[in-house]
Amino acid sequence: MSTNDHEWTLSNQVFSDLCRRWGSPQLDLFATAQNSKCEMGLSLPTLKVYTAAVVAHQPANSPSADLFKHPTLKQFLRGANSLRPHRAPVPPQWSLNLVLKHLTRPPFKPLATIPLHMLSVKLVFLLAITSARRSSELAALRSDPPFLQFHPEKVTLYPDMSFLPKVVSHFHLSQPLVLPTYFPSPSMEVEKTLHTLDVQKALLFYTSRTSSIRRSPRLFIHVSGTAVGTPVTAQTISRWIIEAIHLAYQLSGTSLPASPRGHSMRAVASSSAFLKGVPLSDICKAATWSTSSTFTQHYKLDVRARADTAFGRAVLSYSLP
């Protein structure tokens, strides 16, 4: 047994053994546990996760396998939602335009000579903002073929086969990152400046410059210290994203209105693309949301108000003067 959130909890193996010996527990046992979680202030989605974990350990033909259909539990979850309705978080207050503008300037250029850490920070930010993927998904990307494919007008990336996304389903497991090239053949000065935001160009420089220190096929690796060449964690990815925002504001001499969070990238990227006219279906596909309700409910957008690469191209257009 172990303690968690000031409660005694059974390990998965012990729980399964008890179910096999004594049969499936009655609903009121879980309602009691759920009530204690509700008193702790947990939201409805979190309570549903706890319930889903219970259901996952039940035999397919067990009555407990249909817990979500039980009228008592349905009534409890409705009540929990009434007590603590979902509230959309405060929208991120940092400026995407400001950050993209400074990504086109030193110390984020030229890509051939800037420190590898700066190149890592810039590439992570560009991938995050043009894909709206979670940090865990970015950390799972690989740098070797066929997981990384360069094309004339786009670049396609796939995560490691062992990676399991937050939501494990066929839809979420089969969505690659398809990102656009950005002014691949610049002619005017403004196009040359914007070309410095090209994800494909940044990827080419990053994979080339890190090839001699690599000890892992994962795309993002430590570029210094004792762990050099080994893959970074999702927490490091988030930290790099925040570092890019902080550095851009420092260079501009502007104070950040609030402390940014790595996950705010999904809100900024998806909302920016939506306001640029990208179809909601393309946004959901890019951010791996199986339905539009996740987007519209979470960010409170009015859905009334091109292909795979439309998402990333629309977000990068915020850098246009």
From TrEMBL:
Q: Which InterPro entries match?
A: DNA_brk_join_enz (IPR011010), Integrase-like_cat_sf (IPR013762)
Keywords recorded for this protein, A-Z: DNA recombination
The highest taxon in the source lineage is: Eukaryota
One Gene Ontology term from the biological process aspect of the record: DNA recombination
Q: Which GO terms describe its molecular function?
A: DNA binding
Q: What is this protein's record name?
A: Tyr recombinase domain-containing protein
Q: Which organism is it from?
A: Phrynocephalus forsythii
